[in-house]
Amino acid sequence: MTIKPIDLDDFDDDAPRPVKPGSLSARALAQGEPAYLKGLNAEQRAAVETTDGPLLVLAGAGTGKTRVLTTRLAHILATGKAWPGQILAVTFTNKAAREMKDRIGALIGGVVEGMTWLGTFHAIGVKILRNHAELAGLRSGFSILDTDDQIRLLKQLLEAHDIDEKRWPARQLASLIDGWKNRGLTPEKIPAGEAHGFANGLGGKLYAEYQQRLKVVNAADFGDLLLEVLRIFQEHPDVLKEYQRRFKYMLVDKYQDTNVAQYLWLRLLAQGHRNICCVGDDDQSIYGWRGAEVDNILRFEKDFPGAKVIRLERNYRSTPDILGAASGLIAKNESRLGKTLRTDREESEPVTVRSHWDGDEEARTIGDDIESFQRKGDRLNDMAILVRASFQMRSFEDRFITLGVPYRVVGGPRFYERAEIRDALAYLKIIASPDNDLAFERIINTPKRGIGDTSVKRMHGHARSQGISLYRAAEALSLTDELPNKTRAALRALMDSFSRWRQSMDGLPHTELAEIVLDESGYTAMWQNDKSPEAEGRLENLKELVRSMGEFENLLGFLEHISLVMDVEQSPDDDKVNIMTLHAAKGLEFGTVFLPGWEEGLFPHQRALDEKGRAGLEEERRLAYVGITRAKRRAFISFAQNRRVHNLWQSALPSRFIDELPESHVEVAPMSTSYGGYGLGSYGKSRFEEQSFTNT
Ligand code: ATP
Ligand code: MG
Fold this sequence. Notes:
Blueprint (H helix, E strand, L loop, with lengths): L23 H8 L10 H8 L5 E5 L5 H14 L8 E4 L3 H15 L9 E2 L1 H11 L11 E2 L2 H14 L9 H13 L9 H4 L7 H14 L2 E2 L1 H14 L1 H10 L2 E4 L7 H11 L5 E5 L14 H9 L4 E5 L7 H11 L20 E8 H17 L7 E5 L5 H11 L3 E3 L9 H14 L4 H7 L9 H14 L3 H8 L7 H23 L2 H11 L2 H6 L6 H15 L5 H13 L9 E5 L8 E6 L10 H23 L2 E15 L2 E4 L4 H5 L5 E3 L13 H14 L1
Parallel strand pairs: 1-7, 1-8, 2-3, 2-6, 4-5, 6-7, 9-14, 9-16, 10-12, 10-13, 11-12, 13-14
Antiparallel strand pairs: 14-15
Helix pairs in contact: 2-3, 3-4, 5-10, 6-7, 6-9, 10-11, 10-12, 14-26, 15-16, 17-18, 19-20, 21-22
The site of adenosine-5'-triphosphate has 19 residues, from helix 3.
């Protein structure tokens, strides 16, 4: 069966449909018990067939929420209750949207076209906003700003107001504004107290000006894709009506992670046909820091009187031990609705808890396990390493490159491809070889030191005409009066620093040199002053970079390693181990899951505890619950006893979550014996040789 796309604007409600709801043919179809309904349990089936009226499916991990949502959508289509274009379906990622589309096709046997409104909140928001750009003060073809552009625009505003960016960083303002947008607050609506929180009371004013600026440059930022649509709905009842009429059925996955703006948006739209189905799990709410509100789930029945609530309790994903371990852990949270989960599966291995000497040994052991599971016939695709912080990926990526095991980083760049790592590497490369133009251009004005594009162009010109590198050209120009005074001074200072650092290369351990470079160049400070939520992760990544250098004898050896690592092409092979953060793992499932780094301070993360106290701890525990419940067959939890910080070994405490796991479902593995002589410098060397070997 192929469901043809239709143009909704020409769509007339009375036009003939494939099958009229309630018609004889629809009833006849229902008699035949479509294949897609088979295999659902009674509660799942009720959730699929209760198509009309508000419905909340509240259930734990792996109980088939996403499956119910997908089947329900297929059911609505197959029974002719709506055209594809009349269904609004919200998923959490674009990938999930694609998968859902494929699944629906498979369920009803054919390609489904015209599912225009299946996607993330942002994807749907941008579509609506494009249709009504003028109502938001935009023109058609408006652009969507990424974070960098957003920051640039805010910086201009700060400058215009003579606000010291060092004290009041643009990024801080950006997260403030994002926070307001997540809560559905336009500039006129922000609470007075909050408006005064930035730059001595200018926060609200800057927000308003920023919104005006966006209109002038005909652009929207990510937050606007929700906020502006919300505003259009609120201010233009006729437009709202049109969409209310259009969306006969609304389906929302991961309802626990919606923020206030998304919630208000859904509530308005659902007041039309009132056929809204949300699925969610309060125990998996992990985006509080992005403004998600678990309360949205709790309010559902109030907002939609007469709503049905269906609970699913049978878990189809995991073994009894995995489920038991996860349930026991999450039971320690106080603020939760509480659910029971059961499984009919019988074969089961306890969740393994392992302790390692340090992070490298942890990576080696996990690498060995993966190879051995692969030899036994498991697919790499079916294995995942889920980390709390992105810096943890480095040791696994290095290990996999050494072993020649293909891997992918899901939902983000690979460690050495991260912007902050590339910047740091650029400094180090210039110290080792000044004529690396690409590296030099990358950091000549990062952090900002007042060397603008025009001056860089002039250096390029000089380099070309003299046939020398950019670095030499910069050196030469810093001694003439061809550049403006201020620029020349900044450049001079930079060149002096480089020659000083280069001189230290022989005398200082290279890890110390790297720290000095990052400090003296102002690069570390740049991220320390950055108030965005990602800044801390970037600082952690930089520390990890320095730490990893310790495995090599000197800077050159390390840089050589890096160029080999960067050179390893993403193998065309489709079978790869998955590495991702716990946040990126939601909704996914794997046969084998590794959960490394369960240490106090790392997981639960110190920042969550410092900033939000018990609520922060509970959110971290939900994250642990998400992690364990990704596993179908095997879960390995591990921690390192020592982590190297600033070239010093610090002992780490096992995470409190480990002691909270119910003993009956857990097995403590004997300490690994694969001692590799780390800390002696020899490990890095042998590893490097192995590396060159695998690359030839
Ligand atoms: P999460 O909370 O992690 O997002 P979920 O509740 O959305 O989980 P699904 O991903 O829909 O759960 O389902 C988990 C697994 O169980 C999937 O592999 C799915 O195919 C399988 N499953 C769900 N329902 C059934 C069923 N009735 N029979 C067999 N397998 C099922
Ligand atoms: Mg799901």
